[in-house]
Amino acid sequence: MRISWRLSHLTSSFDSSLQKPRERKQGLLPPPSLPSKSNSFSSLELCFTSMAASTTNLSPLASHLSKPITNKPPFYLVPQTLLNPLYFPLKPLFRTHKPHCTVSSKNPIADFFPANKPNPEPSFIPSFTDDDKPREECGVVGIFGDPEASRLCYLALHALQHRGQEGAGIVAVNNNVLQSVTGVGLVSDVFNETKLSQLPGEMAIGHVRYSTAGSSMLKNVQPFVAGYRFGSVGVAHNGNLVNYRTLRATLEDNGSIFNTSSDTEVVLHLIAISKARPFFLRIVDACEKLEGAYSMVFVTEDKLVAVRDPYGFRPLVMGRRTNGAVVFASETCALDLIEATYEREVNPGEVLVVDKKDGVQSLCLLPHPEPKQCIFEHIYFALPNSVVFGRSVYESRHVFGEILATEAPVDCDVVIAVPDSGVVAALGYAAKAGVPFQQGLIRSHYVGRTFIEPSQKIRDFGVKLKLSPVRGVLEGKRVVVVDDSIVRGTTSSKIVRLIKEAGAKEVHMRIASPPIIGSCYYGVDTPSAEELISNRMSVEEIREFIGCDSLAFLPFNSLQKMLASDSQKFCYACFSGKYPVMPKEVKVKKVGDFLDDGLNGPMDSIDGGWVTGPKNIDVEKEIDPLYQQSKI
Q: Beta-carbon neighbour count of residue 71 at 10 Å?
């Protein structure tokens, strides 16, 4: 466990390089420029929208959120107004060159103090995990204007625990000081009453993370906190940057030093070297250099900022508590737990700034491409009680099951689900087919992250440890088994064998998603394309591999038809191989984190957890065997 994480090196290398014009002129030093799609101000237009807060039981800080923004004469950052904004009405903002930040004389990061106990290397065999499932890597929370911000953040992270189980952290602001607690494990493992008492204040951000166990992953647990010349900033990030290595290499060429192997640290460096004023324009400037998926929350001494990438790959919602406190979270289930009312999504390409003076302000990043929201949020990642991308996850999965029953019917006696993610689709299948749904597989919720296996090996031990068949439901029956997806096929084959060993007469697999043929580069931890069974085998070959009597996937065309007019707003790269944002680096993260984080060697050493392509390749052909450039 670690309390208070710092990056003290963010700006020194860039400042020193700028002080050496003679060496640079002679070609001895590289230019300090960074790759940028456009000028940080010419390609965006900003609008401020006041959002009224509830007037009951306002905390001292939250009470300011109900103040309307004073009408000001219209000023523009650019000579002309950019046309056709897609999401919300634009009101221009005057840009001033006068700094709006002051240098704090206080230490921006809380003092270090030792953890209760060291974090040992794992000594047991890893327990069964859903190795046949993609894994969401992050969940984020931000709270402004509540005297118990850190405790509410803690509860919200509990609600988002399904998005990451290996690390958690909270950063709170008290008396203009950012204090941080991060650690390895579940939220309940990292935090207790003592730790939360170290996080007073009315602003907080939080993060849960997926990765594998190991002491070296601690440095990658977010939120990250950094001090720079105008104060300090904390950030929590959900997503993945496809140009991370390019940005990192450029920064390192200019002398930057990295403490982690996380792409989120790049964002802190970009903010620190930005010349934009005030702070939120530094975030805008940094985000213009990012490519890929990012839903982020930032906290400074006096502001909470939420930002979502222009494509809106990963979800981010906004809510409000009855005392006026503003809440941001990856899913609405987090709002429900802390009694915050859902207001709306953070729109793709939008930056929301919350502070004491002006309340909630909306900034619109332009241009706005067509949204490409991750369809797997509705298939697997999000909880059924969440509303994601404006749609009920429960309703989506129920309809997926109904479509399967209509387009892939089979004579059966009972419908069961692979718990927990297949349950709602199985209910939909059973309702449409007129066949009873029963719990044929019972999931154990008490399996820890490690277990000790007996010396006498047990076949399919990991699956049996977590899933127990109910013989009374299965014996002598023709069984339809509904699951949300198949990735490698290894777990599915074990489940089919488990059901048949319990006496099932027939086993028919129905998968509530199309076949996965492409790796995700936008924040989902998936295997390389070569490991994806649907990318290597036909449906019939997969059926033979997993040993079931019949197999059917949700038809891709039916999925798009079900989404109707919203169909074009979703990303289907894992099903079609069409990538909305072309990955610049031919690699995909293997399942799990890696221990060699690059701190003890050159840049290439961070590839320990990545599959990379050979040099001098055609990127468009090598990214995915079935890759086709999407038309946006």
A: 8
